[in-house]
Amino acid sequence: MFCNQCEESSKGLACTVAGVCGKKPRVAALQDVLLHVVKDLSIYADAARKAGTSDAEVNYFTDEALFATGTNVNFDPQRLQGLINRGIQLIDRLQAQTIQSGANLAGATATYQSNAELPDLIQLGEDLGHVTNGAADVDIRSLQQVVVYGIKGVAAYAHHARLLGQEDEQIYEYIHRALAALADKDLELNEWLDLVLECGKVNLRVMELLDTANTTAFGHPTPTSVPLGHRAGRCILISGHDLQDLFRLLEQTEGKGIYVYTHGEMLPAHGYPELKKFKHFYGHYGTAWQNQKKEFAQFPGAILVTTNCIQQPQSSYADNIFTTGPVAWPGVEHVTNDDFGPVIARALALPGYESDKDRGQVMVGFAHQAVLGVADQIIEAVKKGDIRHFLLVGGCDGSRSGRNYYTELVEKTPADTVVLTLACGKFRFFDKQLGDIGGIPRLLDVGQCNDAYSAIQIAVALAQAFQCGVNDLPLSMILSWYEQKAVSILLTLLYLGIKDIRLGPTLPAFISPGVLEVLVKTYGLKPITTPEQDLADILG
Ligand code: SF4
Ligand code: SF3
Fold first, then answer.
1. Which residue's CA is the closest to the ligand 1 atom numbered 2?
2. What is the Rg, in whole angstroms, of the alpha carbon atoms belonging to the chain?
């Protein structure tokens, strides 16, 4: 196996024996087949589109399949086999249409066997290898990996947005064109660089769509205090990013004597009016994904994981955990069609909490509409010198020890600075009491990684108010990354021309020295150092 798509790649290079995330070689091989299938399907879809047709089923499948190959999403060989077989059927369907149209199909390598057995597919994955291994030039291969991993992030966002009725043909058009380009051996470095930046542009659009999708369905988040303790009674914990799943679960648990708690990236859900109206949607439990083995083991109810990041369930809670949507683990019951009956039945069979417990509160709900609603107050505070600087400290969490940097950095920020945060990296400091500046909280939770659009909107609006560019604002971005949604967000920030981003805890293994040089020279991208050094550099 060869996988280098996340921040925890073995030895900072790649996982080649087994995934640090728990991905077995056979799962890696199946994901490789699936990516090759999606790449070949993209060649046909791109040709078909150029001939005037776009196939909705192909578009949806593309997002679903790419999402399944992301970090900590789908570890289930049978489900991956199902996706591969569907992809092959779609290739067959498009092949006939595109050949008839006389389209240019150079590079299409579709020689797949329909309904192949698992051992044959695993062997095929081992033979095919990583989808970018045809590129001989190390910098081109690096850029191809940036594109493929960025596209996985785009696909994840597109999948969420489409489930809530928002989609845009230009997103599918880009994904198919860029993946089809993997088969074009003549594409040069600059053309791959263009595809990298275009990925950032397309990701901005898909994040906008997702923002529209979430706020149309559930209202704009408002500042909301979320209990970290619990109430006596039966309980369900919901993790992942899918707000629609949460809404359906809340509908189906209403009146059943079950409290629903959020875990990980679901925390910001408490800020949405259409979600917080449910009285049994009580509070938040636990921290980020890498702590789930300990936290899930201690939760006295059923657990539903809707998207990344799932880890290998421990025997102590294996009977209590369920998956839905793109996420899967072999042997874990996967619920479909928004029917959470099995999860509810399990919650009713488990003891739940014996008594009430108060563990304090955290504030969420500072998405773009809430923050821009007090823009005048913020601008005034900046003009008076009460707010010296904004720091966007956001991104993924993970298990590397160097991630304490983010906790220490936030703890050390001076009292005249405001920290905006988003995604699961916030669990390093989400319950710190940083106080406020004239009523404006110093720690503002913008939302999930899925809400990076909100942070961009806030930055753009502040730049307009101060009549300057985003790079001229008293704003610094200190990002933490782990998986591929973070890659796509970083590409969006680069596409927007945002400079001097600090990235950690380590730089991506898939960035070659040559590509890194371009990123450093053009965008001033830099690795994090120490909290003291970086704060001194930022604040002068
Ligand atoms: Fe390794 Fe990350 Fe790939 Fe898992 S997703 S196999 S940890 S590089
Ligand atoms: Fe976290 Fe997986 Fe990236 Fe959504 S839950 S930010 S890592």
1. 6
2. 23
Asked whether 457 lines ligand 2 (CB < 6 A), one says no
Token duo for residue 73: 């999403």
- Does the reported pTM lie above 0.90? yes
Residue 252 sits in a domain of what CATH number? Answer: 3.40.50.2030
Pocket test for ligand 1, best of 7, 17, 20, 308 (most atoms within 8 A of CB): 20
Query: How remote is the CA of residue 349 from the centroid of ligand 2, in Å?
Result: 30
Instruction: Specify whether 178 is located in the same domain as 241.
Output: no
Give a yes or no: residue 356 inside a domain.
no
Residues 287 and 377 in one domain: no
Q: Can you read off the two tokens belonging to residue 474?
A: 């008293």
Counting atoms of ligand 2 from 1, which one is nearest the CA of 481?
3
Instruction: Quote the pLDDT of residue 59.
Output: 98
For residues 14 and 55, state if they share a domain.
yes
Neighbour count for residue 199 (Cβ, 10 Å): 27
CA angle 480, 396, 142 (to 5 degrees): 65
Identify residue 249 by its one-letter amino acid code: L
Per the structure, the complete domain to which residue 80 belongs is given by 10-217
Answer yes or no: are the C-beta atoms of 267 and 239 closer than 8 Å.
no
Enter the tokens of residue 451. 């809400």
Q: 43 and 186 share a domain?
A: yes
Per-10-residue mean pLDDT of the chain, 540 residues long, equals: 97 97 98 96 92 94 98 98 96 82 62 89 95 94 98 98 98 98 94 98 98 98 98 98 98 98 98 98 98 98 98 98 98 97 98 98 98 95 97 96 95 98 98 96 98 96 95 97 98 97 97 97 97 97
Q: What atom in ligand 2 is closest to the CA of residue 448?
A: 4
494 and 527 part of one domain: yes
Closest ligand to 307 CA?
Answer: 2
Q: Which atom of ligand 2 is nearest to the CA of 309?
A: 2
Distance, CA 14 to ligand 1 centroid (Å)? 7
